[in-house]
Amino acid sequence: MESKKKYLVTGGAGFVGSNIAKTLEAQGHDVTVVDDFTKNGHFKNLIGFKGDVIAADLFEYLPENEYFDAIFHEAAITDTTVMDQKQMMEQNVEAFRNLLNYAAENEIPKVIYASSAATYGNGAVPMKETQPTQPENVYGFSKVIDDNLARKFSQKHQDMKIIGLRYFNVFGPGEEYKGKMASMVYQLYKQMKAGQRPRVFKHGEQLRDFVYVKDIVKANLCALQNGKETCVLNAATGIARSYNDIINCLNHELGTNLEPDYIDNPYPFFQNKTEADMSLAKEKTGYTPDYTLETAIADYVSILEGKNK
Hints:
The chain has helices at residues 15-26, 85-105, 138-156, 184-193, 213-226, 243-254, 279-285, 293-308, and strands at residues 6-10, 30-35, 52-55, 70-73, 110-116, 161-167, 169-171, 199-201, 207-208, 210-212, 231-235, 241-242, 261-263. It is an alpha/beta fold. It has 2 domains: 6-171 and 210-238 and 275-290, NAD(P)-binding Rossmann-like Domain (Rossmann fold, 3-Layer(aba) Sandwich); 175-207 and 241-272, UDP-galactose 4-epimerase, domain 1 (Alpha-Beta Complex). It is globular.
């Protein structure tokens, strides 16, 4: 077994952060969580967690003069409907800047942070890390600036490796506390579990690179173990699937036969397809996904059904 290490997870009571924190702890490591509990963080995501949990944002508190083998930075405003540009940029960029300065001061060798496929906007598909960024909202823009900041910071601090992971459409356990920002997989599951026809925009053929949170945790661990240089990498499956595919999978797992309720799309801008090119992530970290949409939804529904019993 790998020797015991110390890790810090920001946003560790949130969806992805809690999954990373609990996985690291299950591997025998010492994990500290920082979360301000004002965004998506919820104590129930950390039930059973044995490490320390610090309730603070990254402007207020970071463990002083404490060494960590790596930091996983998941804290952010992830609600893409937030239009307050100053709030978004402060929470997503200035907090990250604060964290990088902290890491440099404490000689922490590696920072792995959550970037986003929102940086690509409606860009060319398959989406490659080398293509121009075209964010369509301030959330996506904040993540572009995070990527720029990481690149510039690493030039001054070459002993530190900073790896950004551009998450695509993540779903899985722990997302229920995201409310309206929870994935379509979860939203459709709730509708269908209640016996309602699943509502999607006409005609359910929009394509997304849906990725299971357990694969996102794997992408983070691959970056931790194998990432040798500062870079930004896609974190996805590399295969686009439709909303109709999700409905078919959920019908199969729930034993239902509910037909979609197709509704008009009220949004003038809507991505018709996202799909990641995963070749660079595999080359740099060895990451490949373990789950297909079918196996991921089967696993997720079994967990949700267990909770509902």
